[in-house]
Specification:
single chain; alpha/beta; Oxidized Rhodanese, domain 1; five-stranded parallel sheet; two-stranded antiparallel ribbon
């Protein structure tokens, strides 16, 4: 897989893949504030790609991802299928590309993200995305 070839999945496709492949992991790359207060998919691992308030890239992202995966999967972390999710699909794509460059072999981008696109009133969670599709989520 070369950069740019990471497949997009809508949230339902991602949920179905996770259900059919228990070795796969959902990686939420949003900021800690988004993950905790907006909510997150049930069972998602969290490692921020960019962090509030400066929105600068997490310099320890790859190390933190490897550590988080190793804590829950015995196989080499680069072999674990990873589905990256963010608010609407942009940060997760960038994070998945970084993982690909680091040697991860099976990556997917959850294109609509957790909150999805904005509607006509500039609100999220109504048009598409993990929450709008009624998939399992929680707040911490």
């Amino acid at each position: 897989m070369s950069t740019g070839d990471i497949p997009d999945l809508d949230p339902k496709q991602a949920f179905d893949l996770l259900a059919s492949r228990p070795e796969a992991l959902l990686l939420d790359v949003r900021s800690r504030v988004e993950y905790d207060y907006v909510g997150h998919p049930v069972g998602a691992l969290h490692v921020a790609w960019k962090e509030f308030p400066a929105w600068s890239e997490n310099p320890d992202f790859l190390t933190e991802v490897r550590r988080a995966i190793a804590a829950v999967r015995p196989e080499p972390v680069e072999a674990v299928p990873v589905l990256a999710i963010c608010r609407s699909g942009a940060r997760s794509r960038a994070a998945a590309q970084a993982l690909e460059r680091a040697g991860f072999r099976e990556l997917y981008n959850v294109a609509e993200g957790f909150e999805g696109d904005k509607d006509a009133e500039n609100h999220r969670n109504t048009v598409n995305g993990w929450r709008a599709r009624g998939l399992p989520w929680e707040q911490t």
